[in-house]
């Protein structure tokens, strides 16, 4: 028998949210959304508030990423919603099932100039899977359920609803939604068989696994397919850690060698974008495995492109009934290259130079990070080093801005990570440029007793811009920050603690103090501004 619910718009929305597994709200206070707060307060539904709306959306996205369920941000009308659009856009690029509920000026007085009166939908529609204004309290549960179903349906992504003032404050009556009813999307079996035959028959195959392998809960199936076919695996995004670093088929350092010599490159659950040379791997054939037809690349013609439930596709690869080429020599060749690269990295991570080289920071971090620690990258140059030197040991423990490359995710992601994992280490790796976007939300973390460790690589410049601009033009502009700025003192003033480190030998003890502190703790590491991450431009 269908259960009916009655209440004001906030109570109706919260009942539907609970049915879909939402367990907390991230917000910045605003009068247009008071009924949502009232409903949460009266039922002990956790509310976490921030100092900038983008952090609320980033926190909701961190929950969505880490827990593979909807994350919720509640934003007041007008500037509350517009301040959250960068977070929505990141969630859109990252396929994160985030629901943003927005306040809205009253409909009965629309056009008269109410406070913060604006139509949000044209702004958010391009960066959401669904955007809708709900004009009746009775319709709120239906709209919430439909939006969350859309958010959770591959290819996943953010959704947006706003409620005019009179709708969310009014009392309504509606059926309680039953919760998500999702069926796996079956891939074309002929396309799957074609992909399996290509991989099994290749002499030098390579797998690159991305975030959708984690999001689609296909980590075990990825391992089974790699082991059954003996294929080396590289990862990016939240695919990192899908195979632990000690796994014989897990690789991180030999990617250039692998992609230069591969004859089949299998890209699973990640787009063929700038991070993967736009899908151009020379003479190698490309197999692109995605979770929905919409994710097939339009700029590349792959040899096979199965689209559907990743667990089913990867299981079919593992169970391929045809002939299989022996890949042991190929794996051994890559292992030799991998070991040589690791030896070079080990030397860099032990460098005793002062000013401190970024590699040394990551060498010290590797000594203190637990296997289940959540590491968060928020920056450009400094976080590029993190991608090279840190190797997550478990899946679902790495958060970075993703292909949209939006700075400012750090404190919101940290909040969502701490809420998700109250007993794990949470470490934010932040460039000094990125610190300017969200560091004020340390106050939100401190006030709500959400301790995290923040390591700032402070080189006093925009590292990914200063050096390339100087190389291109012989000069640089708008690329300098205040040298040796005391970000640790900022955090101390906001209720946390911290210290500045200028010598490599002091890094290890400082990190230990940070993880023992029990409050937001920032280590402000003064790094060499001449030591920028070497990589070619991916802007084109």
TrEMBL record:
Q: What is its EC number?
A: 2.2.1.6
**Superkingdom in the source lineage:** Bacteria
Q: Does the keyword Transferase apply?
A: yes
One protein family per Pfam = TPP_enzyme_N
Keywords in alphabetical order, please: Thiamine pyrophosphate, Transferase
Thiamine pyrophosphate enzyme TPP-binding domain ranges (all copies):
378-525
Q: Does the keyword Mitochondrion apply?
A: no
Q: Which residues form the Thiamine pyrophosphate enzyme N-terminal TPP-binding domain?
A: 9-121
List the cofactors. thiamine diphosphate
Its signal peptide is: none
Q: Which GO terms describe its molecular function?
A: acetolactate synthase activity; flavin adenine dinucleotide binding; magnesium ion binding; thiamine pyrophosphate binding
**Mind naming one GO cellular-component term on file for this protein?**
acetolactate synthase complex
Q: Which CDD domains match?
A: TPP_BZL_OCoD_HPCL, TPP_PYR_POX_like
PANTHER family linked: 2-HYDROXYACYL-COA LYASE 2, THIAMINE PYROPHOSPHATE ENZYMES
Q: Which family does it belong to?
A: Belongs to the TPP enzyme family.
Name it: Acetolactate synthase
């Amino acid at each position: 028998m269908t259960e009916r619910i009655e209440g004001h718009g906030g109570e109706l929305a919260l009942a539907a949210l609970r049915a879909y597994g939402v367990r907390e709200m991230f917000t910045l206070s605003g009068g247009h959304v008071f009924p949502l707060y009232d409903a949460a307060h009266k039922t002990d539904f956790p509310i976490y508030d921030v100092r900038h709306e983008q952090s609320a959306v980033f926190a909701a996205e961190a929950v969505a990423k880490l827990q593979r369920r909807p994350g919720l941000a509640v934003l007041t009308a007008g500037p509350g919603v517009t301040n959250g659009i960068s977070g929505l856009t990141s969630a859109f690029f990252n396929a994160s099932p985030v629901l943003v509920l927005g306040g809205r000026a009253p409909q009965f007085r629309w056009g008269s100039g109410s406070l913060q009166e604006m139509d949000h939908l044209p702004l958010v529609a391009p960066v959401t899977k669904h955007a809708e204004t709900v004009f009746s309290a009775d319709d709120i549960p239906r709209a919430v359920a439909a939006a969350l179903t859309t958010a959770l349906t591959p290819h996943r992504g953010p959704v947006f609803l706003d409620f005019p003032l009179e709708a969310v404050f009014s009392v309504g009556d509606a059926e309680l939604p039953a919760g998500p009813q999702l069926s796996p999307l079956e891939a074309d079996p002929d396309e799957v068989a074609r992909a399996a035959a290509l991989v099994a028959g290749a002499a030098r195959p390579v797998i690159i696994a991305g975030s959708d392998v984690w999001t689609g809960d296909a980590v075990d199936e990825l391992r089974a397919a790699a082991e059954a076919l003996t294929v080396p695996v590289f990862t990016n995004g939240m695919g990192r850690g899908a195979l632990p670093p000690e796994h014989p088929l897990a690789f991180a350092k030999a990617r250039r060698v692998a992609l230069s010599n591969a004859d089949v490159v299998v890209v699973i659950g990640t787009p063929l974008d700038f991070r993967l040379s736009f899908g151009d791997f020379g003479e190698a054939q490309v197999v692109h495995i995605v979770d929905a037809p919409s994710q097939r690349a339009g700029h590349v013609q792959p040899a096979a492109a199965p689209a559907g439930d990743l667990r089913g596709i990867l299981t079919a690869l593992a169970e391929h009934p045809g002939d299989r080429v022996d890949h042991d020599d190929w794996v051994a060749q890559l292992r030799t290259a991998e070991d040589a690269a690791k030896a070079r990295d080990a030397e860099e991570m032990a460098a005793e130079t002062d000013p401190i080289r970024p590699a040394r920071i990551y060498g010290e971090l590797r000594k203190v990070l637990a296997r289940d620690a959540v590491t968060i990258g928020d920056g450009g140059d400094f976080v590029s080093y993190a991608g090279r030197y840190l190797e997550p040991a478990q899946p679902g423990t790495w958060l970075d801005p993703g292909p949209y490359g939006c700075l400012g995710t750090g404190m919101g992601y940290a909040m969502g990570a701490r809420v998700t994992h109250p007993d794990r280490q949470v470490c934010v790796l932040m460039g000094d440029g990125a610190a300017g976007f969200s560091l004020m939300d340390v106050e939100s973390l401190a006030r709500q007793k959400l301790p995290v460790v923040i390591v700032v690589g402070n080189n006093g410049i925009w590292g990914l811009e200063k050096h390339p601009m100087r190389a291109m033009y012989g000069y640089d502009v708008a690329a300098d920050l205040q040298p040796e700025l005391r970000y640790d003192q900022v955090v101390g003033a906001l209720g946390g603690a911290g210290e500045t480190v200028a010598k490599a030998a002091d890094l290890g003890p400082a990190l230990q103090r940070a993880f023992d502190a029990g409050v937001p703790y920032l280590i402000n590491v003064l790094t060499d501004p001449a030591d920028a991450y070497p990589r070619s431009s991916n802007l084109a």
